[in-house]
Structure formats: C-alpha cells, structure tokens
Write a structure and sequence with these properties.
- The chain has a single domain, classed as Fumarate Reductase Cytochrome B subunit (Up-down Bundle).
- The two termini are about 20 Å apart.
- It has four helices and no strands.
- It is mostly helical.
Length: about 190
C-alpha cells in the first residue's frame, strides 16, 4: 500500500532529468540569443561559429527534452499516479492537475516550437553539432513563421518559469504547512513532516 503513495523510479528519474535540462536550456537559450543579438548589432568580439555551435547544442538538447517528455507522458499514461492527499480541497486538486498538464504541454510544445523556428530560419541545424547529422526541417524557410513562432517559443520560457514557481511553492507548502507526503514522493530521501 505504501508503494501506491510513491512515484516509480522511472517517473522520478524522468522528472528530475527533464527539470534540470529545462532550467539549463532556458538560461543557456537566453544567453545564446543575447550573443546572437550582439553579433547582429556589430559586436566583433563574438565568434559566429561559437554562436552557431551553441544554438546547435540548444536544438539537440531541446530534442532530447522532447523525446524524454514523450517517454514520460507515455509512462504517466501507462502507470498509476499516486493519489493526491485526502485533505486537498477542490481548487488545490484542480491547480495540481492543471499545472501538471500545463507542464506536459510546454515540455512537448516548446521543443516543437523551437524546431519549427529553427526550420523556418533557413539556417542549417545539426544534432550534436555534427554536420553529418542534419536536423530535418519541419517547415520551409519563412521569415514570418520564424518571427511569430520564435517569439512564442521565447515567451514560453517565462510560462515554464511561472509554472515552476507554482510547482515548487506548492510542494514546499505541502511539506512544511500541510505536512503531507507530496514532496517526499519525488524527493525520496526526505521524510514526511506529518
């Protein structure tokens, strides 16, 4: 019965691997985009080859997040999720469910949006920065698509950070205020406070 209150080792591993990759991707993506922008504005101290290399690693990591997120979604749909604590009210249950599904939408939508943006840019993209592994294009080169989808992709990072803040805040509330086992399901070395 106690095992019904915990996530599987696979679910826990996917949760933390994807979370770490996403956080790194957001800040590395912003840094790389700042470098690209400075280069376009005439900063000659920035090597275009380095910017291309960083973008290729960003794209590769994005595809890794996409694959892992699809595996995670498949795992979630095929394995029972631990029940929410009995004491949660209807609003908290709705917020927990909406936040989790919002994360899935972003974990899958953000890499796809980035892939569309990369495709529409017309610049060659290579997985693992290897020219013999070109990233297939999802759309033809199109400046309007590049601008629109790229802007949505960029703003999506903020949506992830907002959801992340809500997610962490809720987990800490459950652990320190409600004193239930919500946090200890994913952080297995912690003991429930209650």
């Amino acid at each position: 019965m106690a095992n019904d209150r915990k996530y599987t080792a696979v679910a826990i591993a996917l949760h933390w691997i994807i979370a770490i990759l996403i956080i790194v991707m957001i800040f590395a993506g912003w840094q790389t985009d700042d470098m690209r922008q400075a280069m376009l504005e005439g900063d000659t101290s920035i090597d275009p080859a380095n910017v291309a290399m960083l973008f290729n690693w960003h794209k590769t990591t994005g595809l890794l997040i996409l694959v892992l997120s699809l595996i995670r979604l498949g795992w979630r749909l095929s394995h029972k999720v631990p029940p929410l604590p009995d004491g949660m009210n209807a609003f908290e249950r709705f917020a927990a469910t909406a936040t989790h599904w919002g994360f899935y939408a972003l974990m899958i939508g953000m890499p796809l949006g980035g892939w569309i943006t990369a495709s529409a840019s017309g610049f060659p993209s290579f997985l693992f920065n290897a020219e013999f592994l070109p990233l297939p294009s999802l759309v033809d080169e199109n400046e309007a698509v590049y601008e629109i989808v790229g802007e949505v992709h960029s703003k999506g990072a903020w949506a992830i950070l907002v959801l992340l803040g809500l997610h962490i805040g809720a987990a800490l509330k459950h652990h320190f205020v409600d004193r239930d086992d919500v946090l200890t399901r994913m952080v297995t070395f912690l003991k429930p406070k209650g």
